[in-house]
Each structure stands twice: as C-alpha cells, then as structure tokens.
Design brief:
Blueprint: E1 9-13, H1 25-39, E2 43-48, E3 63-66, H2 71-81, E4 85-87, H3 92-104, H4 107-110, E5 114-115, H5 120-127, H6 129-138, E6 146-149, H7 152-161, E7 166-170, E8 180-182, H8 185-198, E9 204-208, E10 214-222, E11 228-236, E12 249-251, H9 258-275, E13 280-288, E14 295-301, H10 306-315, H11 319-327, E15 354-360, E16 381-387, H12 390-400, H13 427-434, H14 441-450, H15 455-462, H16 466-483, H17 490-498, H18 503-510, H19 514-524, E17 529-532, E18 546-550, E19 564-568, H20 579-594, E20 598-603, E21 618-621, H21 626-636, E22 640-642, H22 648-659, H23 669-676, H24 678-688, E23 695-698, H25 701-711, E24 715-719, E25 729-731, H26 734-744, E26 753-757, E27 763-772, E28 776-787, E29 797-799, H27 806-823, E30 826-836, E31 839-846, H28 853-860, H29 864-872, H30 877-880, E32 891-897, E33 918-924, H31 927-937, E34 947-951, H32 959-969, E35 973-976, H33 978-986, E36 992-993, H34 1004-1009, E37 1015-1018, H35 1027-1038, E38 1043-1044, H36 1047-1062, H37 1070-1074
Parallel strand pairs: 1-2, 1-4, 2-3, 4-5, 18-21, 19-20, 19-22, 20-21, 34-35, 34-37, 35-36, 37-38
Antiparallel strand pairs: 6-9, 7-8, 7-9, 10-11, 10-13, 11-12, 12-15, 13-14, 15-16, 17-18, 23-26, 24-25, 24-26, 27-28, 27-30, 28-29, 29-32, 30-31, 32-33
Helix pairs in contact: 1-10, 1-11, 5-6, 7-8, 13-14, 14-16, 15-16, 18-19, 20-29, 22-23, 23-24, 25-26, 31-36, 32-36
Length: 1080
C-alpha cells in the first residue's frame, strides 16, 4: 500500500547517552530512520540528549532537540512542535519506555500524536513479563516455568517450587540491568530484591533456570499486510547464563538442523502476529536444551534491538531504515533492496559467509570488579568480522578487538591461562577457570585444546556446542603444521591464510617479523581478494560496494579512477574511545564525498554509522590492523589516508603505515610523535617558553622513585601512547609507586612511563582548535567542573568558560595557536591546560580529533570534523569561511554517564583513569541552567529541596563553609557526622548530627537506605578511600541518589538548583540556537 499522506511531521526519541546495554547501535538505527523518513518527504523532529551522535547533527533531522529525555521535557517539545506521529521503536529501551510513558499519561492523546510502528498494547504485551508469558502459552509455545513478582512476599513461594535455582529478569530494563541468577535461598532473596529495585515498574519475572542451554536469536520484520520475513538467525557461542550482549555470536546459526530452524522460524512468525507489532523489526530469543531439543521462548523486543545493527551489517539489509518506511504505510514488497536494486525487501536475505561478533570488556577500569560474565550485560563495545568460514571469521574478529591479540593463539601474546601457548599450564586449572564464564575464556579453551583436553570434556566445562569446539581444534592443530613449514609454497601459505592466521601469528610461529611474512606473501602472490556483501548469496548482482576480505582467489573490487581517500575508523567501542570518534569519521566521509572524492571507510564496529553501507562510497568491513589496512591500501591505491579521526587505533598505526608507503594526509605522523613523545615534546615547550608541571620519563621503578623524590609527591603516572587515561593514577607515596610500576610498564611495553607533578586545586581546561598550517581557529574552550586529577573524559565541562579571567583565556588562545604552528598541525588539535592562580600550565597536546569534537561542534554550530577533513585534503580555512574564534550567545554543559551500577562493590570515585561510557549535553542561557539540564539528562536530577549529607575533606579551605551556607540559603536541611557537624556549629550553621558507618545505629548508611537523604556531597580523604565512605557512596548509586564527590561539582550543583528555582529552562532546537536568534 502507498505511504500515508495524512502524516506530515514525525517525532523520534533517541536512546540518550551511551551506557552498557544501550550503545551506538541506536545512533545507527535512529539515524537510518531519520534519513528514511526525510527521503519520503516527512518533516522529522528528533529529541535526544547525546551530543556525540550523528543522530543529533542538525543535518540529520529537520528539528533536533538536545534536551533531557524525561516525560516533562518531551511534553514541552511536543507542545511546541505538534507532531502527527511518534515512532517509538528506533531509540532502544529508553525511547520505547518514554513512548509508553507519554501514551499512558495521556500526553500523546492530548496533542493528537499517533504511535506508529508499534501500538501501546503490543508494546506492553511484549515488555510485560506476565502478559508475554500468557501470550506464548496461548499460541502453544513453551516458556521456562515462571512467575511475575512484584514484591518479596510473592517471591518466596515460587522460589521454593524451583528450589531457588532461578533467573531473575526485571521488566522494562536494558542490557539485562538488574538481572540475576540464584542457586540457593540467600542468593535468591538478594537477586529478586535487586531486580525489583532496577525495574521502573517494580516487576520481575522469576524463571526456572535454563543455564547451559543453547541460545539463538531471530531478527524478524513484519508489515501492515502481515508479510513476515526473517532477516537473520544468530547463534550464541556461549550458553544461556551469559547475556547475549556479552556472548560471542555467530550468523547465520551454525548448529541448527533445517527442521529446528523452520520450527524456530514458524515460532517467530506466530509470536509477531500474537504480540501484534504492526510493522518493523523485532528480535526474538530462544533457548534449546542441548540434550532433549526442548525449545522455549525467552523474550521478544518489540523494537529495533541491539542485535539489529549486527544483523543489518551481517546481511546488508538495513533493518531500521525498512522499519521506518513500513511504519508510514509501505509494505515489504514495495520497498527495493538497496544492494541488489532488483529484489524487494520481502526477499529474505541469504548469506554465504560467516559473521562473528566478539564483545569487548573494561573490567580493568574498575578495580574490585569480578571478571565474570553473567545474565547482566557488562561489555562496552564489540567487533564484527566476515569470513568464508567460522575459523577465518573467528580469528579476524579476535584481531579486530584490539586487545593485543592477533588470533586464537600462536601470536606470542597473552599471559597466564590466556597465553598464546600452553607451556607450563595445568589441565585441571584451565578447566576450573573455564567453568565460570570470563572474558579470557576463548583463549583458555585454546590452551586446553593444546594440552589435549577432549572435545567432550571442554564442552562439559563450558557448555559450548561441540561443533564450535571442533572448529577451534582445527585452528590449534594447524599451529603445529605451520611451525613445521617455515618456508611454505604459495598453496600452503594460502591454506594457512584461509584459516584466518594473521601475518603476526605466522611470523611468531616462524620466528620472523610480520613485515617479513608480508613480503613473503606478496612475493608468492598470496594476497586477499574482496567480496561484496550482497544479501542474496550472489544470486543477484550487488551494486553497493560493501566488502570483506577472503583468500579464495575472488575479487569484486572495481576501481572507478576517481581520486579516493581512505578513512580509518576506531574499531570497537571502549571506554576512552567511543562514538565521538566514529562521528568524526562519518563527517569526514560526508564532507569529502561532497567535495568529489571517492571515500573509503575501513572499520570493524557493527554498531556505528561509519559502517553503514551508504555512509561512504566504499566500505571495507575489516579489522583496523597494519596488515588489513595495508592490504586495502595496496588494492585501492588512494590519494590519501586519514588517521586523525579514529582515535588512538589508527594513530598507533600511522608511523608503520607511512613507512610502508601509505599516503598519510593531514598532520604528519612525525608531528604526532613529536607531541606524544615526552622528550621531543619538552623541546617544543621550552622553545615556546610555556609552563609545564615538572615531569620526566622512567622505564624502571628505580628511575621512577628518583624522579618522584625530586619532583615531590603526589605525582601523576601513566603510560605513553594510550587513550582514556588507561592505567593513569595519582600516586601519593613510594610504596604506591612501586605497586604501580609493576602493573603499568606492561600496559605500554614499547614506551616509557610518564611522571608529572600533580597540580592540586587547579582548574582544568580543554581546548579544541583547527589549523590549515597557517590560520589557527580556537573553536572551543571548555572549563572543567571537576578539578585537575579527574580525567577530562570523566569531568563535566562548560563552554564557554564560566569564571576564567579574560587575560587567562587570551593566553590560552595564544599558546594554542603557537603550539599548532610549531607542530605543523593540519586538521584538528586538542590541548589540555591547568590553570592555578594566574599560571597556565600545559598538560597535554593531541594533534588529532578528540572526544570533545561532537560536543563543541554542536555547541558552536560549526561541523569541525567536516572542516578538518577538507583542510586535510588541501583546502584552507579562508576558503571554507571559518576564520574567527566562535563566541556562542548561550552556554553548553557536557556531563558524563558512569557504569558503576553494573559493577557491584566498585567505588564510584573519579580519578585520572577514564571510566565513563557516554555523555549528555545541556544547553541554555546560563551556566546554572545548562548544568542543571545536563544533570537531569544524565539521571542525576538535582533536588530542589530536602536533606543533604555533607562530608568534605579538610584540605578544602573554606569549601565546607561555602557549600553549607549555600545549602542553608536554599532551604536544605544538612546531615553531617560528628566532626563536620561541630565545625559547622562553630560557624553558626545548623546541621543534624548522624553516626558514621560502624559507630552506632541508626547511622548515615541506615538513613540513606531509609530514604532520608536526597543529595550527598562527599569528597574522600587522602589517596585511599575509606571503607565506610565507599559503602555510603555505593548505597547512593544503588538507590539513585545524586552524589557529588568533588567540591567543584557541589558548587556547580548549587548553581544549577538556584537557576532552576529562579527561572524556567528553555526548550529550543539546535537549529534555532545555531541561527543566532537566541537571546535576541
């Protein structure tokens, strides 16, 4: 049927900040939906709080509102814009939950807004655990025995029925948040209470345990004519008990018989019809008993899911785009397949290759967190690979992870149970470790196979299907053959490459370098070909250049003769290198394509817009490693290669690529090294006469101790050439330094440890600038809320600076321009300064795109990454019309989102190592309003009244009094422990005394648990947090109580509360802010 003409304006709600369980897959799906609807002539208005996304670019939708994702703010947007319809299915669980809330509160009805794609009834039937269970029974499908629970009283009787061995699944949460597993009565009570607290509707489904069963997912599409197609089957490598977001997954499913697949397919179709999802993509999850074949339905997502991005990239079928078009009336047979341009979307994709996804975790960022994979998702990113076989695909995915491994083994990397060979390892120790799923289990399984552990024993320990274990065994068995064949002929080397072995692995097994292996390969003519992803197993021609490599002597690359530029992506998301860098890569592709270049994207992250097949002219879905990138450069022969935009991943390759003949454009690798190398950079600083904290480099503890004694404690120590403050720490004494050196030298084996004097009580400043080699424009100066010592990626910041003197700002601009010219920057540059008194200290220079580029671009209304890409390709800033430092007439605040709730027992204190997963943005007339909006958007809603627990370290002279008087003036009641209460009393400030943790009962922890505290301001004492302080901070996080752990954040919080009381926050689109009409 034709598209609906009664709809003119359609609203989309985004997914908010990147969090564990809801990452940039939904930037991809939301962006696709916006593009699809605008193609059809609809006016699209988007609301999202995340500045790092392509989705919140002013070019993506007709109206983009960067506002907190709350019902109150959404109603204000709806009242202002009056959309005809709301598409609830492309913004993840956040977008879905908010759409439900808007419908249930009557707001959609009040303003005449229709839900399209999925109505309220079907959404609730799928999301409500009880309704879903009843629906499955009604259509004759099995679900695990279960009970919907709303209180602990209800929980105990069902727990006894299943002997307390249960899986607990909260309703309306994402990424398995709040989910748990129990094996006894005590664990059961804890897990159910945790799940009830996590569910926004205080509801959990308690299921009989099906741990150890095989898990499958099907991505399904339905249209208004009741046509249903299966886009992709996905099989989990890990058994039930590991969240699907934390499991290795493989597409298509490898171990299903055709009969089993057809049963699952029929069940999925029946589920779509019973639930009643009108149109669009849904995800259905099944579990299968490996011994009896019993099939049970686990859950269904009535929306575009996390797996939809993976399935879209795996098949070339754009699920979110098609879902958006179905929602406005099209049927599947009316929509053309973009890749074949012949088949309709009702033609089910078929793939003749194997896709493997491996998650990436960040346990090392959270000391005290257990490296255990459970029913609650903990991964922060993922990589995807495409190969002709599972073996090739698996090894490619491992090297795409960027964890220092280049395959399943034989690479000389890893340590302990995960080492690249099994020498000195014990069979029983390995089997014991593998029984508990952990991030190293794949490598532990490989070592067990090297020790001769049988397939049966390995399957018993891990619950991994025997087919996968046998595939791994074939890889391991090939290692011995490779060792025995150091001078292979072309046919033998080709066979090893078909198994997925990288040049690094082959070099290690032969005692050669990877460059020697590369030369051998090329000399023998063993080079990869590139096949097209075509959605239909080559039955129809593919017109979209979306490639993966293979060694089967086929190559489908057709060069056009146009000048091409390769953009290297950032690989899998991780803390410190996330969606912000993908944003820069996408902008580069858009800008250079507009300028007439053929753009070539290289990346292996399935979640992102950069790996959408129509972002660039050519997409190579390949690991971002030296070997894989050089193979593509050899084939495409580009005019230029951009390494500045993908974060540290391509930067770490820059010098090797240049040495191998890659035409790097923009800032030269030599200039980048000059900024990154401490000794070389000191020469730059001295030449320009700039201030730097005392610093030096060390490669041993003895050197480090001597330097620290000379500089004076505390010092900041960190490895060089890392991102996100990896292994960065403030060290207060010699013993802590010795412990650190033992850990951190290994974190950066090729580079020395950097040691800097820590500047206490300094204000940190971030600067983003752009240079064409002559003209330097200072695009944005951000003043951090947190003091120096908190990683810049974890600090809230304000643009423009809110209380820096004009002369300090002028000096910062002068120093930035001098540094850009001295380093020969062509493109973007980020500099971090610390201001103490009237002194400006230079902390760090990064001659590349930084994670703040999307935020600054949206704050100033100028697309910095697009401008930089054009500059790198040879244009000047004057040509581009960007010659003046921007001065916005409004204030923008960036706040971060931290994943502490996912890691029980971990302290929430911020420090020099980055831990945040995402960010939000608040924009308004004043610093107070902008900051308050950023807090609401981050889920830290500041109370405007109530009780505050105040506990500040004494090193803050005057800080305690300042905050206490500010709270009192705003009418807050203050709680404080004995010492603080006495000091406040001496100042004439009233405070109720409360006992410390461990003193007596009730104490401050009891008061927090009882709901007596609305806000906590707690700064830690000294270098190590005390256990009682840690306990109360943890209690606050688990109960959703806002907590500030720095004096500066408390000050900003007071400013925000005051602003909210005195004025109403504005609600305007980015387009209106950027038009320059704000405040006029």
């Amino acid at each position: 049927m034709p598209k609906r003409t009664d709809l003119k304006k359609i609203m989309i709600i985004g997914s908010g900040p990147i969090v564990i369980g809801q990452a940039c897959e939904f930037d991809y799906s939301g962006t696709q939906a916006c593009k699809a609807l605008r193609e059809e002539g609809y006016t699209v208005m988007l609301v999202n709080s995340n500045p790092a996304t392509i989705m919140t670019d002013p070019e993506t939708a007709d109206r983009v509102y960067v506002e907190p994702l709350t019902v109150e703010y959404l109603e204000r947007v709806i009242e202002r814009e009056r959309p005809d319809a709301l598409l609830p299915t492309v913004g993840g669980q956040t977008g879905l939950n908010l759409s439900v809330a808007l419908a249930e509160r009557g707001i959609l009805h009040k303003y005449g807004v229709e839900l399209i794609g999925a109505k309220l009834g079907p959404i609730k039937k799928a999301e409500d655990r009880g309704q879903f269970k009843d629906a499955m029974i009604r259509i004759g499908l099995e679900v695990p025995r279960s009970e919907v629970i709303h209180s602990m009283e209800e929980a105990w009787s069902f727990g006894a029925l299943v002997n307390y061995q249960a899986v607990i699944r909260p309703a309306f949460t994402l990424g398995g948040s709040g989910a748990g597993v129990s094996f006894n009565r005590e664990e059961y009570g804890r897990a159910v209470q945790y799940g009830l607290d996590a569910s926004p509707v205080t509801e959990v489904l308690v299921e009989e345990s099906v741990l150890g069963w095989k898990e499958y997912e099907l991505e399904v599409m339905r249209d208004l004519n009741d046509n249903v197609v299966i886009i992709c089957s996905i099989e989990n490598f890990d058994a039930m008990g590991v969240h699907t977001g934390d499991s290795i997954t493989v597409a298509p499913a490898q171990t299903l018989t055709d009969r089993e697949y057809q049963l699952m397919r029929d069940a999925s179709v029946a589920i779509m019809r019973e639930i009643g999802v009108d149109t669009g993509g849904s995800n259905v999850q099944f579990a299968v008993c490996p011994t009896t074949g019993r099939l049970v339905v686990i859950e269904m997502n009535p929306r575009v899911s996390r797996s939809s991005a993976l399935a879209s990239k795996a098949t070339g079928f754009p699920i979110a785009k098609i879902a958006a078009k179905l929602a406005v009336g099209y049927s599947l047979d009316e929509i053309r397949n973009d890749i074949t341009r012949e088949t309709p979307a009702s033609f089910e994709p078929t793939i003749d290759y194997v896709v493997t996804k491996i998650p990436r975790w960040a346990f090392e960022k959270f000391p005290g967190a257990e490296d255990a994979l459970t029913v609650q998702m903990k991964s922060v990113g993922e990589t995807m690979s495409i190969g002709r076989t599972f073996k090739e695909s698996l090894q490619k995915a491992i090297r795409g992870l960027e964890i220092g491994r280049f395959g399943l083994g034989g690479d000389g990397r890893g340590k302990g149970l995960s080492a690249s060979d099994a020498e000195g390892l014990d069979r029983e120790t390995l089997l014991r470790a593998m029984r508990k799923p952990n991030r190293e289990r794949l490598f532990q399984m490989a070592n067990a196979l090297r020790l001769g552990v049988s397939v049966e024993d390995l399957c018993e320990a891990t619950k991994v299907d025997p087919w996968f274990v046998r595939q791994m065994r074939e890889i391991i068995e090939a290692e011995a053959e490779i060792r025995a064949t150091p001078d292979p002929d072309a046919a033998t080397l080709l066979r090893f490459k078909k198994l997925g072995f990288s040049d690094k692995q082959l070099g290690h097994l032969w005692g050669k370098t990877d460059l020697e292996v590369r030369a051998l390969r090329k000399g023998l003519g063993v080079i990869p070909g590139y096949r097209l992803v075509d959605t239909c197993a080559a039955e129809f021609a593919a017109h979209t250049p979306y490639y993966y490599s293979s060694y089967d002597n086929e190559d489908e690359v057709e060069l056009t003769g146009k000048e091409s530029i390769i953009i290297l992506g950032g690989g899998p998301n991780r803390i410190g290198q996330g969606i912000e860098f993908d944003y820069c890569c996408v902008h580069a592709a858009f800008a250079l394509k507009d300028d007439g270049y053929e753009t070539v994207m290289v990346n292996c992250n399935p979640e992102t817009v950069s790996t959408d097949y129509d972002t660039s002219d050519r997409l190579f879905f390949e690991p971002v490693t030296f070997e894989d990138v050089m193979n593509i450069i050899d084939r495409v022969k580009p005019k230029g290669v951009i390494v500045q935009f993908g974060g540290q991943t391509p930067l770490n390759l820059a010098q090797r690529l240049e040495a191998a003949g890659a035409p790097i454009i923009g800032t030269s690798p030599g200039s980048i090294a000059r900024a990154e190398d401490r000794e070389l950079f000191r020469e730059v600083v001295e030449k320009l006469g700039l201030l730097q904290p005392d610093n030096a480099t060390a490669t041993s503890f003895a050197e480090a101790a001597e330097i620290a004694d000379r500089i004076g404690y505390p010092v900041i120590v960190r490895p060089s050439f890392v991102l996100g403050g990896r292994a960065m720490e403030i060290v207060y004494d010699r013993a802590s330094l010795e412990r650190y050196m033992t850990y951190a030298v290994e974190a950066s084996p090729q580079h020395p440890i950097l040691i800097d004097k820590f500047l206490e009580a300094a204000v940190e400043v971030d600067v983003d600038a752009i240079s064409d080699g002559e003209l330097v424009v200072v695009a944005g100066i951000m003043q951090h809320i947190e003091e120096a010592g908190v990683h810049s990626g974890d600090s809230a910041c304000i643009l423009p600076p809110y209380d820096l003197p004009a002369d300090v700002i002028a000096r910062i601009k002068d120093q930035t321009r001098a540094l850009a010219r001295e380093l020969g920057v062509i493109g973007l540059m980020n500099i971090q300064y610390a201001v103490r008194g009237s002194d400006v200290y230079l902390l760090e220079v990064n001659p590349r795109a930084s994670r703040t580029v999307p935020f600054v671009s949206k704050a100033i209304g100028a697309p910095l990454a697009k401008l930089a890409a054009r500059v790198m390709a040879g244009r000047t800033l004057r040509e581009l019309g960007f010659t003046e430092d921007p001065t916005p007439a409004y204030v923008s605040a960036k706040e971060v989102v931290l994943p502490f709730i996912k890691f029980p027992g971990v302290d929430i204190l911020l420090g020099p190592e980055m831990r945040s997963t995402g960010e939000v943005m608040g924009i308004d007339a004043t610093m107070g309003l902008a900051y308050a909006k950023s807090q609401i958007a981050a889920g830290n809603t500041l109370p405007t009244k109530g009780t505050v627990f105040l506990s500040l370290k004494r090193q803050h002279p005057g800080g305690e009094e300042e905050i206490a008087r500010g709270l009192t003036a705003l009418g807050f009641r203050i709680l404080a422990t004995e010492g603080t209460a006495a000091r406040l009393a001496a100042l004439g400030i009233a405070a109720e005394q409360v006992a410390k943790v461990g003193e007596s009962r009730p104490n401050i922890l009891d008061r927090i648990i009882n709901g007596d505290v609305d806000w906590i301001v707690n700064t830690p004492l000294g270098g190590d947090a005390k256990e009682d302080e840690k306990a109360l901070r943890r209690a606050a996080i688990e109960r959703g109580i806002p907590i500030m752990t720095t004096l500066a954040a408390a000050r900003a919080g007071l400013a925000g509360i005051k602003a909210l009381r005195e004025s109403t926050a504005h609600v305007l689109s980015l387009q209106e802010y950027h038009a320059g009409t704000f405040g006029k």
